[in-house]
Design brief:
The structure holds 3 protein chains of 3 kinds. Chain A is built from 10 helices and no strands. Chain A is mostly helical. Chain A folds into 2 domains: 92 residues, no CATH class; 72 residues. Chain A is globular. The longest helix of chain B has 22 residues. Chain B has a 5-stranded parallel β-sheet with strand order 1-5-4-2-3. By secondary structure, chain C is mainly alpha-helical. Chain C is built from 9 helices and 2 strands, in the order αααβααααβαα. In chain C, strands 1-2 form a two-stranded antiparallel sheet. Chain C has one domain. The chains are: A mainly alpha, B alpha/beta, C mainly alpha. Chains in contact: A-B, A-C, B-C. The interface between A and C is large, with 122 and 124 residues.
């Protein structure tokens, strides 16, 4: 058990946060320079959902304005930069994890909870995040990071709001993480 | 070591940001200067000066989102202007104005002659308007054609004009004058080239997580 | 002639080239996220308990680096800000969505991008979180457009930048944000050390 914990935590292998931030900033800048827009994550996932619904219930999608905009238009709903970016992020994370020796089946959880309750909480938290991201038209990457770098007022509002939501509930969920 | 690098990075970023602030973002005039050669070429080749007849056609074309910008001095505008044209000073031409009516809007800049209208056209185009034109011969030619019975009077590029209103009005009639919106067939006997073609804006970049 | 940047990528290297470029950029994004430690929910959540402020440091360093570069190139007329996508502002959906997002962040331990990286490295909590995100997106698509359509457009200001709001040149806004961010980094380093020493005492 102790050995497992030791093998899991390899803080020495993580990059210095400022260095990682600077490189992420360069990636973000390169994305603006090459494509004219920033990064994105949740938008691609929304397209996955819309495409799946389009396959299963096409009529239903056409009647729903939110879904129809994603599925409608020329071309396949999955042929969109947001979806391709997801593919890149997935491969990038995978390669980095493989190279760093962090590619292993495990569940990260606080010391006071079981993996199973962690899974439940991750599912609930993920649902809220997905819901909130769609409402705010973006997530930490598409709104906060990308919009923040080009000074969008809404992105800064979103950013402050995310941190506020997290810090407000942190005390309530302290046993989950500490 | 790490701390020193961090401090160095922070100092560099602050200095770079200060440089950015000192240079300042390009003004409308900077943008015109940046593209001066290309803009002057289009003007010299008379690719964007549309005939009064062409403008009349646009005024009645409901499919074209037409935005007429009258850049003359306000007294002239009050004396006479085209129906639905909007008075604006050259300094008022900014990116917000360009983006407001949507990407497919056709802008036509109107002056007394062509000089000031050309400046307005440059400001519009340099700041990103996809479909911008100016009225050839300005209001002076317009009135010759539609009010003074010189229907076939040609555009004369050599007569640059001094940008003064050459017609006399007894009172400020504004857009109540019959020539402010001539009937749809008023230019029937006039020969002109239809210059206006609506260009699609560049590929639409859409970011965010939409 | 337009400014050099942003490149008209699809026209330059074709649609397939564009896809490859975007996958490459996404690769860089995912790689850095993993290297920063963002595939680990505990590291992300520690942000909210002041033990480990990595999230804040990485995010704001990235923002200020990209911001300074973007506005530097725009000032030099190499890049055109008008051709850059600026997320349109919708105040109320952003505010409420952000709060819900923040709540989900502390409960679930990830955000969509980091969860994908976590799942890519076989972390089951990341995978469950990702499932949740898809569920949340699905639920929103089904429920909200019908019931809350009016709310989604509330406080719409369109393309609206901090520079427009403050009425100054973006360069000064960028300078201000860089200075504030650096100040916050100093503060955050201090807080981290304080929290670490408190832990040792206990």
């Amino acid at each position: 058990m102790a050995r497992q914990a030791k093998a899991e935590r390899q803080p020495a292998r993580y990059w210095d946060p400022y260095l990682a931030g600077a490189i992420l900033g360069l990636v973000l800048f390169a994305t603006f320079a090459v494509t004219g827009h920033g990064l994105g994550a949740s938008g691609g996932m929304a397209r996955l959902i819309a495409a799946a619904e389009g396959q299963l219930a096409p009529d239903h999608v056409q009647r729903n304005p939110e879904l129809a905009t994603a599925v409608g238009g020329a071309g396949h709903p999955l042929d969109h930069w947001l979806v391709w970016m997801l593919v890149g992020v997935f491969i990038g994370g995978l390669v980095s994890g493989l190279l760093a020796g962090r590619f292993r089946l495990t569940t990260f959880h606080g010391p006071q909870i079981t993996p199973r309750s962690r899974w439940a909480l991750a599912l609930i938290g993920g649902t809220l995040v997905g819901f909130g991201a769609r409402m705010a038209r973006g997530c930490t990457s598409g709104q906060a990071l990308s919009g923040g770098a080009v000074l969008s007022v809404g992105s800064f509002v979103f950013m402050l709001s995310v941190f506020a939501g997290g810090y407000l509930l942190a005390y309530l969920f302290r046993r989950v993480w500490n | 070591m790490a701390t020193k690098l961090r401090i160095a990075g922070a100092v560099i970023l602050v200095l770079l940001a200060a440089v950015v602030a000192l240079i300042g973002q390009p003004s409308a005039a900077d943008k015109v200067a940046f593209r001066a050669a290309e803009l002057d070429k289009q003007l010299d080749e008379r690719k964007v000066q549309i005939d009064p007849g062409d403008l009349l056609r646009l005024m009645y074309d409901t499919k074209v989102p037409l935005v007429m910008l009258d850049v003359r001095d306000e007294p002239d505008y009050n004396l006479f202007h085209l129906v639905d044209s909007r008075h604006i000073a050259l300094s008022g031409i900014d990116s917000a104005l360009i983006k407001a009516p949507g990407e497919k809007a056709v802008f036509v800049v109107i002056g007394n002659d062509e000089q000031r209208a050309s400046e307005g056209w440059k400001l519009l185009t340099a700041q990103g308007a996809t479909n911008a034109y100016l009225l050839a011969g300005g209001i002076n030619l317009w009135l010759d054609v539609f009010a003074n019975g010189q229907l076939t009077k040609p555009i004369d590029p050599s007569a640059s004009g001094d940008d003064t209103l050459r017609h006399r009005f007894n009172s400020a009639v504004g857009q109540l004058h019959p020539a402010a919106r001539p009937p749809i067939d008023a230019a029937a006997g006039r020969e002109f080239v239809e210059l206006v073609e609506i260009k699609e804006p560049g590929p639409k970049v859409k970011g965010g997580c939409g | 002639m337009d400014t050099l940047l942003p490149l008209n990528i699809a026209q330059l290297i074709g649609p397939v080239g564009e896809i490859i470029a975007i996958i490459a950029l996404g690769f860089g994004f995912g790689f850095v996220l993993e290297r920063a430690g963002f595939g680990d929910s505990r590291k992300l959540a520690a942000q909210f308990y002041f033990h480990d402020m990595t999230v804040f440091k990485v995010m704001f360093t990235a923002i200020i680096v990209a911001m300074v570069l973007v506005f530097l190139l725009c000032a030099l007329q190499v890049m055109d800000y008008e051709r850059i996508w600026v997320n349109p502002t919708y105040l109320w959906p952003g505010l409420v969505g952000g709060l819900i997002f923040g709540a989900g962040f502390i409960i679930g331990g990830y955000c969509p991008g980091t969860a994908l990286v976590s799942a890519a490295t076989l972390k089951l909590d990341g995978l469950f979180f990702l499932g949740g995100v898809l569920l949340g997106l699905f639920a929103f698509g089904e429920l909200v457009p019908k019931i809350w359509q009016w709310f989604l457009g509330a406080g719409a200001l369109g393309r609206y930048s901090l520079a427009q709001w403050l009425g100054v040149d973006p360069g000064y806004v960028a300078l201000g944000i860089v200075v504030i961010a650096v100040g916050c980094f100093v503060l955050v380093e201090y807080v981290e050390r304080m929290m670490a020493s408190r832990k040792e005492v206990r």
